[in-house]
Amino acid sequence: MNSTGLLLIAPIILPLLVAIAGMFGLALRPASRRLQRQISTVGGVLLLAASLLLFAEVYRAGIQVVQVGSWPMPFGITLVADLFSAVMVVVSGLIGFAVQLYSLASMNEEREVFGYYPLYFVLLMGVNGAFLTGDMFNLYVWFEVMLMSSFVLMALGRNKGQTIGAIKYVTLNLISSAIFLSALGLLYGLVGTLNMADLALKFADVRSNPDVAGLVNAVAAMFMIAFGIKAAVFPLFFWLPDSYYAPPPAVSAVFAGLLTKVGVYALIRVFALIFPLGSGPFQDLLLWVAGLTMLTGVLGAVAQNEVRRILSFHIISQIGYMIMGLAIFTPLALAGAVFYIFHHVVVKTNLFLVAGAMERAGGSGDLKQLGSLYRRMPFLAVLFLIPALSLAGLPPLSGFFAKLSLLQAGALVEQFWLVGVALFVSFLTLYSMTKIWTLGFWKPDPSEAQAFSAAHAVAVPVAPKTRWGAWFLPMVLLALVTLIIGFGAGLFFPVALQAGQELSNPSIYIEAVFRSAQ
Amino acid sequence: MEIILAVVIGVLFASAVYLLLRRSLVKLLIGLALLTHATNLLIFTAAGLSHGGPPVIEPDSNTLIGSSADPLPQALILTAIVISLGVIAFALALSARVYRVTASDDLDRLSQGEE
């Protein structure tokens, strides 16, 4: 194992070490909240640094491959970081760090001394593992690592809604995992390997064999359903708004930002590498899925009145844009999808963080009960506006360039109806963001108005005393990232373009993996 | 042999889906457990069944000669069994919590309770 091997493994090993340290901390000093916080802060910084180093190496030297334990592929497990994986690892490091900071400010002590931080890092390990693995079965294992910790993070607490949300979430994910695993079994029966590069190579022959064409399509469809549930695409999204609404803001922020995107990542990986779109019925299907996902998500959001529920529905509609990039399947579209994922994760996490602060300041997430936050906390209003306008795609923020590239790619292959849908949805997104702005920030606070009209001093509910500096820090960080990738799109888009080129040309990936095996 | 196993897997999947669609929380859990068993058997069968061919290399040879059982699917199934054990155990604990909170194992009433 050389230094590149270490770089590749670090984003997986580091969170594990942090989690272990945290658990030892819990065992040795059970009530020490400070120890937990110190360990996890150090862990968050190290993880971000490790992911940036990995990205720098991949950007400089091309695809990095490690055969874990020096077992040659396809027998051992291969870890692969192409540019797409590296970008995803960077975004997970960034979100991991920001939400960790936010947890320091917002998490209650009960959860903190009950192992919140170790669980959080196990979750990050699962996410990074899923991004870096080059083996289908290993992908399943990482999915389970990630799910298991997300189950516990979601259920940890005494909230009734949380428990009920958790049972739905657990059931849906178990079904999705069972479908994924069945598809793996059938795939292994067909090809006899589970290494992604090896699969891509051998599957080319299997696909052309008319005897098994039906089975091949069935397996592809099973992968699509399994990852579709995790990515929350139409019509498999119904679990998402219920589940992402209940847990504490920090938890739902990391779920909203990262977890569904792992499903999108797996979809892109599988349908770019193993079942390349363009042959078979799946391209048309995905185009429809993309359009319908965008539409249903945004229309669902219009009907909602809770900040976090509105944002949850917007996750669904944004997933539609990413699937659109995959479905069009040109290098430009894939680049657009990669750029969109990066932009979306940063922006969406930030919006959830802001929503958590709004709930804290206003005592509720219900827009009917919120109001005049602009007057009370102008800085929070600015922090809301940056990601909100970016989500809607206003120039010069990051969302504009993400959408522009997707629309351009769509117009180039003459999918005009899909481009139209994307524009319409983008308009409705702006409407939703305006709604949160108007009702949450501008409208007079209903409790104050009531007190005024009743003409006697009813005690206005005062928000619990809060040190807002610690809350704002991660939001400022993420808002800065949004601004930087927006204003510096000329610098960052070529990276996405290169990732798109790699994705649309699987032979680069396959060659890199096989070369390292020699 | 494949036919029998295929029928068994089909029945397991069918009963799992049936149980998942019931309203009772306990039946949901049994359905999930059956689902994982069906999946494991599917991996086992799809990878090909063979009889009397241990994947052992003869002492005077370097490679495996003749047809033999493929040990990899069994390794996969072992992993999957361990994972499903953990997940089902968690689901059981969670549903016990749900029962304590809502005093009902009716899933329909659960979603009403959330309003």
Q: Could you walk me through the main structural features you see in this protein, from its secondary elements to its overall organization?
A:
The complex is a heterodimer of chains A (518) and B (115). Chain A has 22 helices and 2 strands. Chain A is mainly α. Chain A has a two-stranded antiparallel sheet. Residues 455-460 of chain A have low confidence and may be disordered. With 115 residues, chain B is an all-alpha fold. Chain B has one domain (2-50, 70-107): Helix Hairpins, CATH 1.10.287. Helices cover 70% and strands 0% of the residues of chain B. In chain B, helix 2 runs antiparallel to helix 3 (71-102). Chain B is elongated, with a radius of gyration of 20 Å. Classes of the chains: A mainly alpha (518), B mainly alpha (115). At the A-B interface, helix 6 and helix 7 of A face helix 2, helix 3 and helix 4 of B.
Please write out the topology:
The complex is a heterodimer of chains A (518) and B (115).
Chain A lengths: L2 H26 L4 H29 L2 E4 L10 E4 L1 H24 L2 H4 L3 H17 L3 H20 L4 H32 L4 H13 L4 H19 L7 H7 L3 H26 L7 H21 L4 H22 L2 H32 L10 H4 L1 H15 L5 H15 L3 H27 L3 H8 L14 H20 L1 H16 L1 H12 L1
Antiparallel strand pairs in A: 1-2
Helix pairs in contact in A: 1-2, 1-5, 2-3, 3-5, 3-11, 3-14, 3-20, 5-6, 6-7, 6-11, 7-9, 7-10, 8-22, 9-11, 10-13, 11-13, 11-14, 12-13, 12-18, 13-14, 13-17, 13-18, 14-16, 14-17, 14-20, 14-21, 16-18, 16-20, 17-18, 17-20, 20-21
Chain B lengths: L1 H19 L4 H22 L24 H32 L4 H7 L2
The first-to-last residue Cα distance of chain A is 14 Å
Instruction: List the secondary-structure elements of chain A in sequence, H or E.
Output: HHEEHHHHHHHHHHHHHHHHHHHH
Count of alpha/pi helices of chain A: 22
As a whole number of angstroms, the C-alpha radius of gyration of chain B is: 20 Å
| Total domain units of chain A | 1
Broad shape of chain A: globular
β-strand percent of chain B reads under 5%
